[in-house]
Amino acid sequence: MRMLPGSAETPRRLAESLAHGTEPANIAGRVAHIQQWFTDFGRYSYTDVTRVPLSGLKGWHHDPATGDIRHDSGKFFTIEGLAAHLPGGPVPEWMQPIINQPEIGVLGLLVKETDGVLRALVQAKVEPGNRNGLQLSPTVQATRSNYTRVHRGRAVPYLEFFRGHRNHHVIADVRQSEQGAWFYRKRNRNMVVETTDDIELRDGFIWLTLGELYAMLAEEDRINMDLRSVLSCLPLSVPDLDTVLRSDGTGFRGALVRSCHPSAPTRHSFGELLHWLTDVRTRTDVSTDRIPLNSVQGWRRTAETIAHESGQFFSVIGVEVTARGREVSHWTQPMLQPRGQGVIALLVARIDGVLHALMHARVEPGYLDVAELAPTVQCIPDSVAALPAEARPPFLDTVLSAAASRVRYNTVLSEEGGRFYQALSRYMIVETDAEETEEHPEFRWIAVHQLMELLRHSHYLNVQARSLVTCLHGLLSAPEPVVPNTAGVEGS
Q: Are 162 and 193 in contact (CB under 8 A)?
C-alpha cells in the first residue's frame, strides 16, 4: 500500500482540491456533467412515496400503554412525547412529539488522491422525504439498524473503510448532533477517511474534487444535509490559503480567506468563547421529560396524522415507499412534516479585515448539553407568527429585509430526507456591518477558523450551523461577488 502524506499536509491538500478546476469555464462544464450523471442515474434509482394513515403503517405499532409509535423490531426509531420547561424563556413550557433514535449512525466520506488531487467519493442517494429525489450524500450514510441489516436488505457499500479504518488516514472523526427541535439527543459519527486502496466504483457513486462538490451547493436541493455536515468538519485552516486559492486579499472573498487563517485576528479569544458558551449552558434552567405520546397536550391525534392545534410547527404523518436503488425496495414509516419553509441565515461582517459570523447560543429540547452554536436566524417564519411577539427571533427582520447586494449565498436546501418529509429551508449568508449590529447576550461574532476549531469537537455547532460553514467554504473558491452601485449600500 502506498504511504499516505502526513496529517500536517492535509489542510493544504484539501484546499488544493477546493481550488482545482474552479475557473468559471471549467466548473460550469463539470457541473453540467454531474447534472447529466444525476439525470442518467435517476432513471434507475427512484422512490414512489404515498401518504398513508398512521394507523395503516405496516411493521410499526402503537404501544397500547403509551401511544408511542414503534417499529416491530424495536430498532430504528420511536415517535414519543416530550415535555420541555424553559423558565424565563419566550415560551416557558410546552409539549410535543419527538423522534427518539438512540443509535449513533455513521456519516462517512471516503477520499483518495488521484492525478495529484484529492477527490471525495459521494453517492446519489434517494430518500423518501426528498422533494427532488436524488441528492448527493456521503459515501456511507447509515444508522446502526441499517448497517446491521435489521431490515434484511443489502449490505451498506464501503462501510468497511469506516469500521475498520486503522490502515487508513482518518482526517476527521467526531460525533455531532442533529435537529434538537425534532430529535431527542440524536447523534451521528461524522468521519472523513483517506485511503490509497484500489476502489471498485459502484453504480450511483462518483469521485468529485472539493471544488466540484462546493460548486453543487449553488444548486437547490443537490447536496444533502448529511454531506453538508461531514464537509463542515474538514480542516481547511491553512496559513497560505490566499496563495492556494489565488485570492488577491480584497473584498468579501479576501476577508473570508483571511478568516480561515489559523492566526487571523478575532473579536473574541477562543477562551472567551468557550467561557461564554459554558456560562449559557450553566445558567440556562432547562429540563425535558420523555412522556407518553398520548399524554402530549395541544396536539390533535387522528388515525391519519398528529398535528398541533394551531396548524403550525409540524405534523407526524405516515408514508408508504417503493424504492429502486436502495437496500430495501418497499417499506412504510412515520415522518415529520414541517408546516412551512424555514429560514436559516448567517449574518457575517468584516472585523479588522477578517470575516466573522454572528452565532447564536441556541437552546433546544433535544440537545445533549442544553445549547449549541446555531446560525444567527433559524426558524420557520409561518410558525413564528403563532408565537408571542417577544418570541420573534432577533435579527429575523434584518435578514428578511437585506438588500440583494448584501446577500452572499441564497439557496433552498433540504433537511434530512429519511425522517423529515420535504423539510425545506432557505439558507442565506448576509453581509452586514458589525458596528451597526448590536451583539445580543446570546450571540457572539466568531471568526471562521474558530468555528473550524470547534468542529473538531462534539456538540458545539448544530447541524444548521454546520451546513452554513460548508456554504462559507464553498464561497472560498467562488468569484468575488459583484456589488451593484446602489445608493445607501456600501460596496465590497
A: yes
Burial tier of 284 (Cβ tally within 10 Å: 0-12, 13-18, 19+): middle
Any idea what DSSP says for residue 183? B
Task: Report which of 383, 381, 375 is spatially closest to residue 348, judged by C-alpha positions.
Answer: 375
How far is it, in rounded angstroms, from Cα 444 to Cα 268? 8
The Cα-based distances of 102 to 76, 105, 131, 177 in angstroms read 9, 9, 26, 11
In 131-252, beta strands by DSSP E = 134-137, 140-142, 169-177, 187-194, 205-208
Nearest CA among 451, 481, 406, 14 for reference residue 253: 481
Q: What angle do CA 152, 157, 161 make, to 5 degrees?
A: 125
Q: Of 277, 284, 276, give the one whose Cα is nearest residue 88.
A: 284
Is 189 in contact with 107 (CB distance < 8 Å)?
A: yes
Q: Within 10 Å of residue 213's Cβ, how many Cβ atoms?
A: 25
Residue appearing with cell numbers 398528529: 306
171-229 confidence digits (pLDDT tens): 999 999 999 999 999 999 999 999 999 999 999 999 999 999 999 999 999 999 999 99
| Three cell numbers written together for 359 | 452565532
Interatomic CA distance for residues 255 and 349, integer angstroms: 9
CA distance linking residue 125 with residue 45, whole number of Å: 8
DSSP code, position 333: E
Q: Identify the DSSP state of 223.
A: B
- CA atoms of 262 and 458, how far apart (whole Å): 20
Angle at 187 between CA 292 and CA 165, to 5 degrees: 145
Compute the half-sphere exposure of residue 396: CA atoms within 13 Å on the CB side of its CA.
Answer: 15
Q: How far apart are CA 169 and CA 198, in angstroms?
A: 15
* Helix, strand and coil in the chain, % to nearest 5: 25, 35, 40
- Say yes or no to pLDDT of 489 above 80: no
Over residues 367-386, the pLDDT tens digits come to 999 999 999 999 999 888 87
Q: pTM of the full predicted structure?
A: 0.94
State in Å, rounded, how far the first CA of the chain is from the last one: 49
β-partners of residue 189 are: 106, 175
Per-residue DSSP letter, 17:
H
Tell how strand 105-114 and strand 117-126 pair up: antiparallel
Cell numbers representing residue 248 in the block? 488577491
CA distance 295 to 301: 11
Question: What does the pLDDT read at residue 6?
Answer: 63
